Automatic annotation (TrEMBL):
An annotated Gene Ontology molecular function: glutamate decarboxylase activity
KW Glycosyltransferase (keyword) present: no
Catalytic activity: L-glutamate + H(+) = 4-aminobutanoate + CO2
EC number in record: 4.1.1.15
SUPFAM superfamilies: PLP-dependent transferases
Gene3D superfamilies: 3.90.1150.160, 4.10.280.50, Type I PLP-dependent aspartate aminotransferase-like (Major domain)
Keywords annotated in UniProt: Decarboxylase, Lyase, Pyridoxal phosphate
Name of the protein this chain belongs to: Glutamate decarboxylase
Organism classification: Bacteria, Bacillati, Actinomycetota, Actinomycetes, Catenulisporales
Domain of life: Bacteria
KW Lyase (keyword) present: yes
Cofactor(s) listed in the protein's UniProt record: pyridoxal 5'-phosphate
Length: 463
């Protein structure tokens, strides 16, 4: 929490508007300890509602990939199932069956060679899904090394320097050495170039990102796989790929169906995605699948009682909501392939419009142009606007309600600052035209500055 917000949160009591309070109720409550007496639910609701209102409008948050819109039927289903625990398979067998249907639908969507041999599960967002994919990598590597009488104390995982922070967490939590392949102007994603310098007999796998968080660009999974094929031919090392498709795995099947990134690539062992991103569900829901159950080590699987039999489970959490899984199935039923195509296409059209308009402005140049997912980034042209930066653009847009982050690129490109827009369902073309107008107005204001704005603490945007 930013320092100034923390100070605000620790100041005096919570005051209650007299209009909300009922006769006899206290007009203030301690902010950081429980009060002695209860408060009427209507009053407590209004107090919490009003403070949460300060967060702003989630629909105008163009920093997040997480869905901020669902239709009324989905919301109703969400509320009806809010008391179900997804982990209790025996108590909620219908919900457990729906979860299995969902991941089997994804197995078909991602071209699993044998849907009956595939295996998967729902998770709390892609973070848990990535952890499970990484754990399966590590355990398989360990078991193979032990069987060969080799040490298992120095595993490493190879990935782009532009990975989402969850992969750094995975390596930290599970004692795996992260090996980051730096992105550059020439190689803006992990594309297989010089991969041989990063892998060895201790490499448990390579992560390919279908929709880099910094820019939205796809990493070419097939190209990475072919580079690993050459390495195997030369060295004998057979290194699997995990595709982090948090965003792109629910875009590519509908907008780029001929792109080979999924289980059509034999080296791809596992894939994760976020149901709560372009899966069109509110947070938090993720999915992880393995192309074949043999790729998920039996030592990671626990058996739970289910309809008089056993069901395998390998999630990290033992209590989590089932509502998002039911809403995911609702979306699968409601939209089908054509519906998902139309929804994702609409988001892509908005993103293309924004990229074209922003890219045409004299002060900016696009880093990428929303060719992959409905996400793109741009930077300030060198030498333009000596009195302002993209951070100033971000600050001015925040005053108008828009959250459009500015941040440095990773490692070798850390001197390059970009801004990024994420277009999701609910970001209409009308809203997009308003955003363009606000950006143009912001730039016109900043161009009039005769000296830089005073330095201020910048909120740091994390990936």
């Amino acid at each position: 929490m930013p320092h100034n917000n923390r100070e605000r949160d620790l100041r005096g009591d919570v005051d209650v508007n007299p209009l909300f309070a009922r006769p006899g109720e206290l007009r203030s409550r301690p902010r950081t300890r429980l009060a002695d007496l209860p408060m009427l639910p209507e009053t407590a609701y209004q107090v919490v509602h009003d403070e949460a209102m300060l967060d702003g409008n989630a629909r105008l948050n163009l920093a997040t990939f997480v869905g901020t819109w669902m239709d009324d039927q989905a919301r109703r289903l969400y509320l009806e199932a809010s008391d179900k625990n997804m982990i209790d398979k025996d108590e909620y067998p219908s919900t457990a069956a729906i979860e299995e249907r969902c991941w089997r639908i994804l197995a078909d969507l991602w071209h699993a060679p044998d849907q009956e041999r595939a295996i998967g599960c729902s998770t709390i967002g892609s973070s848990e899904a990535c952890m499970l994919g990484g754990l399966a990598f590590k355990r398989r590597w360990q078991e193979a090394r032990r069987a060969a009488g080799k040490p298992t104390d120095r595993p490493n995982l190879v990935m782009s320097s532009a990975v989402q922070v969850v992969w750094e967490k995975f390596c930290n939590y599970w004692d795996v050495e992260p090996r980051f392949v730096p992105i550059t102007e020439e190689h803006r994603t992990l594309d297989g170039a010089n991969l041989k310098s990063y892998v060895d007999e201790n490499t448990i796998g390579v992560v390919s990102i279908l929709g880099v968080t910094y820019t939205g660009m796809y990493e070419p999974v097939l190209k990475v796989s072919r580079a690993l094929d050459e390495i195997q031919h030369e060295t004998g090392l057979d290194i699997p790929i995990h595709v982090d498709g948090a965003s792109g795995a629910m875009i590519a099947p509908f907008l780029q169906p001929h792109l080979e990134w999924d289980f059509r690539v034999p080296r791809v062992a596992s894939i994760n995605t976020s149901g709560h991103k372009y899966g069109l569900v509110n947070p938090g829901l993720g999915w992880v699948l393995w192309r074949d159950r043999d790729l998920l080590p039996e030592s990671l699987v626990f058996k739970v009682s289910y309809l008089g039999g056993d069901m395998p489970t390998f999630a990290l959490n033992f209590s989590r909501p089932a509502a998002q899984v039911l809403v995911q199935y609702f979306q699968f039923l409601r939209l089908g392939r054509l519906g998902y195509h139309e929804v994702q296409k609409a988001s892509m059209e908005v993103a293309k419009y924004l990229a074209d308009r922003i890219g045409a402005m004299e002060c900016f140049e696009l880093w990428n142009d929303a060719d992959d997912i409905p996400v793109f980034a741009w930077r300030q042209k060198p030498g333009y606007g000596p009195n302002w930066t993209l951070y100033d653009v971000s600050d001015r847009l925040r005053m108008k309600g828009w959250l459009v982050p500015a941040y440095p690129m990773p490692d070798n490109l850390s001197d390059t600052v970009v801004q990024r827009v994420v277009v999701r369902n609910g970001m209409s073309m009308d809203l997009a035209t308003n955003l363009v107008a606000d950006i143009e107005e912001t730039v016109a204001y900043l161009d009039k500055l005769t000296q830089p704005l005073p330095d201020a603490d910048r909120s740091v945007f994390h990936h």
